[in-house]
Amino acid sequence: xxxxxxxxxxxxxxxxxxxxxxxxxxxxxxxxxxxxxxxxxxxxxxxxxxxxxxxxxxxxxxxxxxxxxxxxxxxxxxxxxxxxxxxxxxxxxxxxxxxxxxxxxxxxxxxxxxxxxxxxxxxxxxxxxxxxxxxxxxxxxxxxxxxxxxxxxxxxxxxxxxxxxxxxxxxxxxxxxxxxxxxxxxxxxxxxxxxxxxxxxxxxxxxxxxxxxxxxxxxxxxxxxxxxxxxxxxxxxxxxxxxxxxxxxxxxxxxxxxxxxxxxxxxxxxxxxxxxxxxxxxxxxxxxxxxxxxxxxxxxxxxxxxxxxxxxxxxxxxxxxxxxxxxxxxxxxxxxxxxxxxxxxxxxxxxxxxxxxxxxxxxxxxxxxxxxxxxxxxxxxxxxxxxxxxxxxxxxxxxxxxxxxxxxxxxxxxxxxxxxxxxxxxxxxxxxxxxxxxxxxxxxxxxxxxxxxxxxxxxxxxxxxxxxxxxxxxxxxxxxxxxxxxxxxxxxxxxxxxxxxxxxxxxxxxxxxxxxxxxxxxxxxxxxxxxxxxxxxxxxxxxxxxxxxxxxxxxxxxxxxxxxxxxxxxxxxxxxxxxxxxxxxxxxxxxxxxxxxxxxxxxxxxxxxxxxxxxxxxxxxxxxxxxxxxxxxxxxxxxxxxxxxxxxxxxxxxxxxxxxxxxxxxxxxxxxxxxxxxxxxxxxxxxxxxxxxxxxxxxxxxxxxxxxxxxxxxxxxxxxxxxxxxxxxxxxxxxxxxxxxxxxxxxxxxxxxxxxxxxxxxxxxxxxxxxxxxxxxxxxxxxxxxxxxxxxxxxxxxxxxxxxxxxxxxxxxxxxxxxxxxxxxxxxxxxxxxxxxx
Length: 838
Known about the structure:
Elements: H1 4-13, H2 15-47, H3 50-54, E1 58-62, H4 68-79, E2 83-97, E3 111-119, E4 130-131, H5 137-140, E5 145-148, H6 150-156, E6 163-166, E7 169-179, E8 193-197, H7 201-204, E9 214-221, H8 227-237, E10 243-246, H9 253-290, H10 292-300, H11 305-341, H12 356-379, H13 386-390, H14 401-421, H15 425-454, H16 461-468, H17 477-507, E11 516-521, H18 526-533, E12 539-550, E13 553-554, H19 557-561, E14 572-576, E15 584-586, E16 601-605, H20 606-611, E17 619-624, E18 627-639, E19 650-652, H21 654-657, E20 663-668, H22 672-685, E21 690-693, H23 694-733, H24 735-747, H25 752-788, H26 798-819, H27 821-824, H28 828-834
Parallel strand pairs: 3-8, 5-7, 14-19, 16-18
Antiparallel strand pairs: 1-9, 1-10, 2-3, 2-6, 2-9, 4-7, 5-8, 6-7, 11-20, 11-21, 12-13, 12-14, 12-17, 12-20, 15-18, 16-19, 17-18
Helix pairs in contact: 1-11, 2-9, 2-11, 2-12, 2-23, 9-12, 9-14, 9-23, 11-12, 12-14, 14-15, 15-17, 16-25, 17-23, 17-25, 23-26, 25-26
């Protein structure tokens, strides 16, 4: 039977502790609601339909023209009725306005680099290209017409019906593309999308030998059961440089990005749930401690432990239900803010919204977290004895085997959550192990630091008393240090990486570094382009090739693809010259090429040697457009600066590659005010040449990094809120001990300012320890990431580090001081009257 008055009085008398418990439950629920809604929206809108992400059943791709055998095989499938076929070409080219134009003097740009997609009727087989007019792609895209992104219209000041030059053709803008099924989102692109029909491709005259083009055959299979058989047939005839994948096996950049990004957010959510659980346990311990005298009293009149525990379970359920409802409400109200964070990164239909599955999942998860962390404080109520209370004894937390089992179950639960959200079990286990290792390292460091600060005898009385307060019964000092350290380490790491990327590529861009790249130059155009530029520039020939063998052993492509970062399995651009670049130096030889060797030679960048064992004198066999080229390593080069200057992994003598199919590019430094005019002049004279303004590209890259960092910091901020909840719950849990200390200090003559100083110093020391350890961890992790993954120099930003340290100390100390105000106002006389037995 439920004693309603008892439940009501307990809720009323422990309203402060109950409020914090509600906050912890609400935080757990709102975190899961927010991230869960985002995950569900993205998966529903973008990732569930893998056929739509690739627009076909089978995708045959290549960075060079398809081999004759592949063309014959694909055409045969079409003629036999086994598959429908659509060809797709993707490449970058310049779009320029007609000259003269009515507003040409007002318009800053008359040409723009665009991402062309040349498609055949039938594309896409799955999904739909959404146009502003609402019409179908095949109804609008006709010969002589193009469909463009709105960005192109805005940048060039154009409208529907205007005409533009692309290559050697003049085409009319008929519609605006809103979304493509195989490119549902666009984070970073060198230029806006332009759709062109396949019938117009020859007239563009942009796809020539050596052009940088992505070729695709999209196939829709008539019989779904024949999918794997047809894919195997194409695998047998394809050239080495071609790829055959199905919608099940093809990699999607969009899917990979969102899988990784959502996993990181899920990991943040799991960590926040863990911290919220620690806050729940600490707060519930404070709540039960505040009720111990009441429990002892009613036990003396016959109440059983079952009666007590049952009613407190009901109290916890009531508080948990309130916290769950508040969390669901805040989560629903906060989703528009999340939508704003992702504005432009997600299509409109992927905007997070509250769904019943997410609501039920969040409610169940919140209940599980509450049950797991409430078990030990509630189980401890069985140990409250009237005789112990009359002696004013401290009831210890339950220990031994039961405690170990409970914490093991909690650990397995959270490890299972990580693995549940990770599609790859191996990576999931690695992340779980890494997370546990990080928490374990921080835990050991926290214990070590606390042990060290307690050892020396400190003469400064407030400082000595503050350090002694770390050992106060029920004080969650270690949990708070661990929580703050890990949370701050993640936030600091994101900040350092963002600052280093910005400092390396944006702020520290060398004054003499090239800011304009001209690509897809044909050999016959070199002299004319140099004349048009009006200055002598260095041209870089490029020949596409793949590594076949090293010292006669075939390259293990699968092992190479599993490498972190770059690998030798990809396609490379070879070049030829007889001199070092200004930012190169020889590392293992005295000359670039040997005069005493008559066979083909190659100079290798030392980065390639890190990917596979190589030595001077070794032989590498390349496949150059299907033709084998065996060359002997004559030297190794290294880069002396990490800049955006061009560099090549493999350099040959001119006599080896000069007759191979090739394209050429150049890089030069131009005054920003001249870029637009020079760009328009080059494109008008050489329509096939693409001109890339690197400064605009870097600005766009910086904006994407900034936005993603803001999103990550927003969700990681939940962890900091959880840490603050633990801080407050710890102060509440030790309220009685803190009041006793404050009263004794005042009886001995201390002022309220002295007591406040002691409590503030306790927060200062704890926050300083956490911030210092977080700075060490974040700088170490960020240095490893920037040095070995991003391959850029690392800057520690000492001034900003000190500022973050100070901000952390001020924030934590302020929160601690506000939570301790009620304790400082307690009167010694009142305390002594209530504890005359002492």
